[in-house]
Each structure stands twice: as structure tokens, then as C-alpha cells.
Amino acid sequence: MNPHLEHLHPYPFEKLNQLKQGITAPADRDHIALSIGEPKHPTPHLIQEALLTHLHGLGNYPTTKGLPELRTNIADWIGKRFAIPGHLIDPETQVLPVNGTREALFSFAQAVIDPSDKALVVMPNPFYQIYEGAALLAGAKPYYLNTTAENDYLPNFDGVPEHVWQRCQLLYLCSPGNPTGAVIGRETHFKLLELAEKYDFLIASDECYTEIYLDENQPPQGLLQSAYQAGNKTFKRCVIFQSLSKRSNAPGLRSGFVAGDAEILAKYFQYRTYHGCAMPLPTQRASIAAWQDEIHVQTNRQQYREKFDAFIDILSPVCQIDRPAASFYIWLKTPIADTEFAQQLYAQQNVTVLPGSYLSRDSDDGNPGQNHVRIALVAPLDECIDAAQRIKNFLHTLN
């Protein structure tokens, strides 16, 4: 067996199931699950219709590179969304469809890491656990950057020692952040682009939450957008990861893309031809329909805003609760240990949230996820309102 498998940590939801084991939640309250970031808004009809219309495509093998129409539509979307001139994004060499960002974020590390060189993969802490697993199974060592309230829940890149940058082969960014919703700005991107050039590492920017944000006039900055503004018009050392799961409420479609540096993507494409991960043709056709439409995305954003408004309005009188700039998560500070909070909330109110320490690793400064829980506002509005009221009642019992 691959010896690196021994270094993998249990997945957060495995730990959560163990935490709840043996507890009988109140039978007079329906269960409300706010622990998993799985959108519950209906998948738009235009996606479903395109999928059904092209089911005959199941009779053909898809290509790893995907349909030219899909790559062209993705390139057009990147240009419009991130204000990049269309001619700078070549659908032939700078865009690859992937079966959701999860498989791509994992496989990308397997393709680009050289394990013979004491490789480090730098990542935020807390983090999406795929980053860590990808680094470990690629033969690299994770290096964690704590995201705390003192740094507005963003990594302190200025505090990274030079010897870490010297060994860094890959930097995972997550903006808007999971679980905090914090957004990395242009100036930080500029700084990271300079570091990547100086120390010869790649930047993998997980941007699957960029289309869920608070202010319609201030969409989150993207890495390719910053690269273009910095004069890096070939997006050297930059790859972004995008998905329809959150943007279009289609997590089961397993559709996304990677885009950026053509030289990197040429090697990654070679890896993917062996990986056997081509996107089914009906999925590609449904994806084309999704990337072409923004109306359902705007509606989606508005629904999340309404849930944030209601949820925060109910809880703000009894606890400190901050509204993130983007994503659909509340990163809530807890007055007791996060695991105890989650366990008791489930036992008393039949509401499931995820302990923040399950998303983090211990460091010299402690575990940055401790005394926080991640609350995913993915349930319908009425359930989110009900959950907020139950959490409020639970907090009263703690006080």
C-alpha cells in the first residue's frame, strides 16, 4: 500500500458522526443539517433540460479536453466575470473541464509535486481537507498558515519564513475562504505572484465560492484577474479552480474547470489523459447552459443574502456574529469548546453544525478552529430561521 495513506486524517464528517454517536436528539423537532456545504436551492431547469436533452451522448466516449464549445464558453465567462480581455484566454490551451473542483484540487498536486525535493505545500488553516490529503499523497509536507480574527481570517503571508518559501512547490489559496468567507484582495495577490516568481512555486486558487457574495457591486477578486492587472498576461504560475456546485446549485453534476498557465495545464492535461476523468458529454452540455446564464446566479445570491439577514438578525442580540464578505458560511465563535457546543446543540435542539477544530490542525499558536463552529446556510430560508431560533435558545441555556 502507499505508505502516505497512513498520514491521512479522518474526514471531518467522520469525526462529526462519532461525536453524535449514542445521542438521541429531540423527537419533537425536525433535524436541521447545517454542517455540510451542499446547496439545497433547486438546480435551475435550464441545466436539467440540457442534461436530459443530451442523454444520447452517453453512447460516446468523451475526450479529456472536453468539447470546444464548453471550453469557449468557460473562457468567455472568465473574461466577462474577471474583466480580462477575451483574447488572453485561449480555450484550447488555458482551459480544462474537470469533474468538480474536489477531484481537480486533489489530482493537480499529484501532477505537479516533485516529492524528491522535500516539497512543502502551503495552505490556509482551517482548510478544505482535500488540500492536505493531496499534499500528503503526493509525497509533500503541508505547511499551515493560521487564519485568525487578528488577521481578518486571512493567512499572514508576511510571517512565512524564507526557508518555507524556498521549499514551497505549491500554494493553495481559498478565496472566498472555507470556512470563514474571507476574501483575498488584489494587493495580496500581487505579493504572492512576486513570491511565486522569486521562489519558483505554483499558485492553485480555489475560487468555487466567488459567485456568492454580499455586495452585488463588489464581486470577489480572482487570481487570474490580479495576474492580468499585474501585467502577467500569460497567467504564469497561476491556476484557478471553479465549479458549478455552489454557483449553480448543481453539486451532483460534478462539473467545474481549471484555467490559467498554458504550460502547466499542458502537463496537467497529460496527467489527466491517464487519470481517466473525462466529463460525460451530457454533463458538458448542461455545463454550457449553466456558464452561459447569469440570471439564476443572481437569484441564488439574493436567496443567500436573505438567509444571512434573517439568521444574523435573530442571533446578534445573544452572541458575536459576523457576516462574511462571501460564501454561504457563518464562522461562529462559541462560548464553550466547539466540539461540546456542536454535541449539545444536536442533543438539545436537533441542529447539526461542524466543529471548527475538525477543519484545522494544531500549531504552535494552538488550533485556529477551536471555539468556532461552521454553519452552512444551505437549507431553505424557513429552516435557517428555525435553526437560528434554536441556536439562540441553546445559547440562553449556556448563559
UniProtKB/TrEMBL annotation:
Q: Report the EC number(s), separated by commas if there are several.
A: 2.6.1.17
Q: Which GO terms describe its biological process?
A: lysine biosynthetic process via diaminopimelate
Q: Which enzyme class, named as a word?
A: transferase
Q: A single GO molecular function, which one?
A: pyridoxal phosphate binding
Q: Which cofactor does it need?
A: pyridoxal 5'-phosphate
Print the keywords alphabetically: Aminotransferase, Transferase
Q: What domain of life does the native source organism fall in?
A: Bacteria
Domain Aminotransferase class I/classII large, chain residue ranges per copy: 30-379
Spell out the protein name for this chain. Answer: Succinyldiaminopimelate transaminase
Protein encoded by which gene: dapC
